[in-house]
C-alpha cells in the first residue's frame, strides 16, 4: 500500500491558479480532478453535480472512462454517490463493492477500484454534488484525507454557485441550484411581487477562499470570536434581558455556541487546511447544517437556527459588513426573504426598493405583517424551507393573493405573472380614479370609509386612498419598533405629526394594546402566561400600570390641543374599566390645565368590542362611551374559541357564520337604540365579500387597510343597501346553515356587484 501525502494547502494553491486562468469550464474541471487525484495519491477522482431533475451527472473524472463524462448519471439516493448526496454525509469504504448501496455503472469502468471516499459538495447546508476519490487496493482513508477532500468540495460548491457550470449542461436540464420551485405558504397580505431575492440574514458571499498565512487567519478568527463573545455578554448583562425569558434563552444559546471548543477547533482546522477565516466559517456552518437538516426534533431544529444566526454574525464581524453597506447594494426590485423578522427590521429597508416579503414563520397578526400591510407590501408566510433554497439575487415571484412563492420561475410562469401584475395595475388605476368619488350607494346612503394606521409611513395613504379619516391608529406600533419605551415627548411628537399630516380629517387613537402576541422585548411581564391572548394585555395591563397609561394620555392631550381628541380603549371587558379610565383622563386634564397647556376642543372616549362579555352589557356600555368600535379579529377569535395564529384551525370557522353575524347585528341595534356611532375596524372591513355582509347588517362606518379602500368603494357604488339589508336580515333570521358565504356570493352575482 502506497503512503499518501495529503496536502490540502497544495491543492488549494493549485485550484486558485486554475480559477484565475482564462479557460473553458470543462478544461478547468478536468485540471481540478487531475490535481486532486495526484495530490491525494488516488487513481480516480470524480466530480458529480446534482441536476434539477434529481439526477447526479458525472461532470469530470480522472481515472474512469472519459467517455462517461456528461453521460453517466445516478438518481438521488442511488448507488454510493446517490447515497452521499441524499444523506449529506461522507462515505469512507475499504471495499466499495460490498456496500449494499453499490451500483455498477459499466460505462465508467470503476468496478476494478476497491477503496472509496466520497464527500458531499455543500453550500448553506444544501447538497450541490459529490466529490469522490478511489484506489484499486483496499485501504481506509484517514481523517486528514476526509477533511482535505471536504475542504476542496467547499471550493467546488462556490464554483457551482458562481454559475460557470450551466454552459456544460444539456438543453432543458439545469444544475439543482437553478431549479424552479413552487412553494406554498399562507397569504399575509395581498398583492403580486416580482423581483430578486434579498436574504434578510444574508449568506455573505465569501470570495476570498484561500489563505496566504494560516497564523494570521487564525488570529483574525480569534479576534472576531472574542468580539462576538463580548457583544453577547454585553447583551446578556443589560437590565432589559436580565430576567428569565425567551429573549435571554436565545442569547444563552448563542453564548454556548460561541464558547464551544469543538466548533472553534473545526474552524481552526479548516484554516490550517488553507481556507481563510471567513471561508472556514462558511464551510463548518454548511457541514453542520447538512448534518442536522434531517433532525425532526423541533427543539434541536430551533438550535440549528440559532447556530446559523451566530455563524452569520461571525461572518459579518470577519467581513466588516453592516446593514447600511448591505442596503446600499439592494436591487430596486427586492423581495425580502427571512425565517422571521421584527417590525423594526422591515422598516430598516428603503421602502421604495421593496416589492414583497417572504417568511418561513409569520402569521396574519404578526407585527411585521401588520407593518407590511401598512406599507402595501405583499407578504407570504409559513413558507417552510425557503431560506435554504434561496440565494441572493435569485429571481422570484410572490403571489400574496394565493399564498404562493415561485422561486426561479420558468419563463411561462413569469410571463403569466407579468400579465397578472399589469392587470392589477389597471385595476389600481381604476380605484385611484374613484378617490374623490363620494362613497354613496345606488340608493343614496353614504358609507364612511376610514383607514387603519399606526406609523408615519401610513399617513400619505390617507389622501391617496380618498378615505375620510383614520378609524384606528395603533399607538403600540411606535412601541414595537423602539428598543426602549418611547418617552412622553417622543409620543407627543408622533401624535402632533399625525395631526399635521391629516389636516382636518378625524383620527381615533387606540391606547396602548400590548401583551398577548404583541410582546415588547424590553418590557417585563408578570411571568409566563399559559394563554396570553386571554391574559394580561391591553386595557388590563395599562390600568395596572397607571404611570404608563397617564404618560400616553398626557402626550395625546398635549398633542391635540385646539382640536378634537378621540381615544379608544382596547380589550374592554366590563363597564367599570371605562369609569377607571375617565378618572385618569380627568386627572391629566386638571394637571395640564393648571400648567397652562392648551386642551382639546372636545374629548371623545370610545371602547372596542372584542370580548364577548360586552355583548351582554351593550346598553350600559353605550351610555358611558361616545362611540364604539368592533374589533372583529379578536371578537371572532374569542366567540369561536380559536387561536387565529394556529394554522391548523384558523380557517376552520367562517367569519360569515350566522352566529357571528348575529352578534354583529346585536351591536348595531344597540348603537341605534342609544344613538351611539358604531365602527368596525377589523380585517373583515377590507375584504369586499365580508364588507358586503357588514353593510347588509347595518354598518355605515368601516375602517380598513388603505389598499382596500378602492375595491370596497367600487363594490358599494353598485349596491342598493336597502335591498341588501332586507334580504340579508331575512336570510339571517331563517338560516340553518353554518355560513352565509354562498348566499352572499350568489347575491353579488345576481346584482352585478364587483367583488
Automatic annotation (TrEMBL):
Name the UniProt key words of this record, in alphabetical order.
Cytoplasm, Kinase, Magnesium, Metal-binding, Phosphotransferase system, Sugar transport, Transferase, Transport
Has the keyword Endoplasmic reticulum been applied to this entry?
no
Might you report a single GO cellular component term?
cytoplasm
Cite a single GO MF annotation: phosphoenolpyruvate-protein phosphotransferase activity
Quote the EC number: 2.7.3.9
What reaction gets catalysed by this protein? L-histidyl-[protein] + phosphoenolpyruvate = N(pros)-phospho-L-histidyl-[protein] + pyruvate
Please state every residue range assigned to the domain named GAF.
Answer: 24-170
Q: By its UniProt entry, which SUPFAM superfamilies does this protein fall under?
A: Enzyme I of the PEP:sugar phosphotransferase system HPr-binding (sub)domain, GAF domain-like, Phosphoenolpyruvate/pyruvate domain, Phosphohistidine domain
Entries under InterPro entries matching the protein: GAF, GAF-like_dom_sf, PEP-util_enz_mobile_dom, PEP-utilizing_PTS_enzyme, PEP_util_C, Phosphohistidine_dom_sf, PTS_EI-like, PTS_EIN
Any keyword Acyltransferase?
no
Compartment(s) of residence: Cytoplasm
Signal peptide positions are none
* Any Pfam family the entry gives: PEP-utilizers
Give the similarity note. Answer: Belongs to the PEP-utilizing enzyme family.
Name of this protein: phosphoenolpyruvate--protein phosphotransferase
Q: Source species, please?
A: Bartonella choladocola
